[in-house]
Hints:
Elements: H1 9-37
Amino acid sequence: MSPVLEPNPQNSHKKLLLVLGAMLGVTVIVAVIASFASP
Length: 39
């Protein structure tokens, strides 16, 4: 989270939200598939 590597702070904030949303979405999809796969 060093500001030296990221010259555009507001853009990195949007990217962080996108990554968190993607991780949450993948977790939900895996949970749904696991609940369907279990007998």
